[in-house]
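Workshop exercise sheet. Pairs work together: one partner reads the sequence aloud, the other fills in the structure field after running the prediction. Swap roles for the next sheet.
Pair: D.N. / O.F.
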Amino acid sequence: MMEPQVSVTDMVDLASIFSHPIFDLAVRVFLGGYLIYMGRAYYADPLASFRGSSRPLPFDPWVRQALRALAGFCLWGGCFIFAAAIAVRVFGLHGYLLALALIAIATIATWLLLPKSPSANGRFRIWKMRVPK
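Structure field:
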């Protein structure tokens, strides 16, 4: 007797793989860590990725501040995702008080992880700007 042939789609059930607690924890920790890494990089030098990939941006202070604010939010989001993954998946915590505690923990972690400014006066120099005479 021949065994029934299994279809290709029945061989791997992606829903069971993605719903596995260890895989879920690994994906969330990786995503949070990547957001933290990229948020720190963009906070330190907000216009770094625009230098080589696009036309020159006008040097407006509000552009730098807006990009730094977005980078800070990404850094905070990465800290929140990382802390939530550990609290929910490892410790099994849930609820409104946990949400408030996670917001506070993510805010403190973001403040601790912010890169220091390269100069004492807090200004960032991107490049030496030559002023036309």
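Discussion prompt: The chain is about 60% helix and 0% strand. What would you look at next?
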